[in-house]
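In response to the reviewer comment on reproducibility (Comment 2.3), we provide here a single inverse folding case reported in full, input and output, so that an independent group could reproduce the run without further information from us. The structure tokens appear first.
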């Protein structure tokens, strides 16, 4: 184009130039989007660890106030605020030290809660709030060692077979710190929000309700990082309990999502750590046992 006898160049982009720019943007997006996703997951992991650290500190303060005894799972106490269940969950025992119910929710917990299976609240103030509780307080879990113990009075071939040497509390009785050989190597609270109702589509654990708050029996199938379907023996329960076997093999019962195939854990001495499934499962759930056995088990 000529303007006053001078040639002026058109400043518009050519089609080739536009295609090159679009290609560069697409390449950058392909590189950066996974990085953004990893950053978001790292942030959720950090928040989850922070939540558990606050819970761990509350647990330690509780233990000091109650003669070095862990909270009692399913302790019978009259409900408050028009609650309908006379059993206090562990979160309500720790709440005076935390004072923030949302601490019990992991940001990666996207499992819906099933109102029909929650079963009532000890503190009626939480009935309408439906705050997710993503962390379970450990009771007696099933172990292969206890299955094979000839002195075990339970019918481990098909009935309950929870090992009394595991967990921070049995129903109605919290254990003392003195009963724990190695508090720094013994789990107290686990990250657990796997679906356990509606064909694995729902979870029943919410703040203020006792149901779903105790991690016990065959609940180890819920732990983060376990491969489903099983690839190695560590991914299956090796005992004789038929109920545990069915929960481990049920295709609808998927393990907790966790964080990059790992879960966050609170130990009995108050420290918090992210652990792989193999480290939790090894030696017949060694980290769950209060008195550490000398015999080794595989897995």
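Designed residues, in position order:
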């Amino acid at each position: 184009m000529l303007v006053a006898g001078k040639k002026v160049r058109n400043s518009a982009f050519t089609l080739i130039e536009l295609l090159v720019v679009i290609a560069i943007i697409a390449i950058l997006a392909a590189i950066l989007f996974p990085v953004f996703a990893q950053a978001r997951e790292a942030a959720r992991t950090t928040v989850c660890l922070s939540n558990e650290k606050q819970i761990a500190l509350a647990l330690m303060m509780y233990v000091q106030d109650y003669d070095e005894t862990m909270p009692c799972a399913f302790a019978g106490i009259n409900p408050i605020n028009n609650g309908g269940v006379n059993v206090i969950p562990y979160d309500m025992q720790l709440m005076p030290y935390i004072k923030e119910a949302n601490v019990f929710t992991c940001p990666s917990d996207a499992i819906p809660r099933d109102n029909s299976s929650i079963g009532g609240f000890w503190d009626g103030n939480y009935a309408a709030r439906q705050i997710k509780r993503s962390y379970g307080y450990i009771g007696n879990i099933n172990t292969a060692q206890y299955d094979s113990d000839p002195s075990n009075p339970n019918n481990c071939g098909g009935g309950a077979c929870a090992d009394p040497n595991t967990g921070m509390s049995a129903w109605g009785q919290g254990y003392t710190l003195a009963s724990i050989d190695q508090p720094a190597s013994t789990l107290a609270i686990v990250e657990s929000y796997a679906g356990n109702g509606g064909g694995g589509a729902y979870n029943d654990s919410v703040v203020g309700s006792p149901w779903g708050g105790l991690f016990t029996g065959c609940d180890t199938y819920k732990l983060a990082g376990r491969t489903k379907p099983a690839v190695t023996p560590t991914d299956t329960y090796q005992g004789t309990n038929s109920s545990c076997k069915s929960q481990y093999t049920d295709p609808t019962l998927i393990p907790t999502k966790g964080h990059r195939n790992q879960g966050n854990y609170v130990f009995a001495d108050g420290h918090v750590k992210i652990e792989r499934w193999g480290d939790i499962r090894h030696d017949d759930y060694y980290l769950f046992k209060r008195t550490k056995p000398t015999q080794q088990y595989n897995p």
